[in-house]
Design goal:
about 200 residues, Serine Threonine Protein Phosphatase 5, Tetratricopeptide repeat, disordered N terminus
Amino acid sequence: MNGFVRWTLSAAVLPALCGFGPALRPAASVAPVSCSSTFSFPQLSTSPYHPAVLRRHYELAAADKAAGEKFYQLLANYKDRDALVLGYKAASEAIRARDASMLNKLSYVQDAARTFEQAVSLAPQNAEIRFLRFSVESNLPAFLGLSKHVDEDKEMLLNAALSHPNSGLDAEAFRTVRGFLVGRGHVSDADAQRLGKVAE
């Protein structure tokens, strides 16, 4: 179980783009992601489930345990069937696994896997949901057997990003997906160059 003991999700998603995760692969043709230590929540909607609000929660939660708990509690009792909100609920469960005791880590990861399945079944072509799942599964230890969608999701994300602005992603989500695919070395150099030429 040593691999499980060492496992964390702290480098799973946006923190890797903000310098919390492993070193990013340089990509001259893709503008670097700018991250600040001060975050504010968008005043776009009073709904706590607005996509821009959930993205900020996710960004904070991926880097900070207290923010991770707040993110988890925000979505723990969500029972509706908005696919994107369910995608973020799954992400919050995965982040909860990072901060849980060793006895509970696997349970939260399994919860996240089930919630991702529900979200994807409701909106199979939603690239942002696929990104959330990919960013989690691509960082799980292989021995857990919970990374079975990595290749499928990566292919969909690459195709979606290359088709932007017809990707189904807004500009913010597109920048995040492109930065993650290129910065974390999930695509070839040739595809990284192609992505770098895609206008936002």
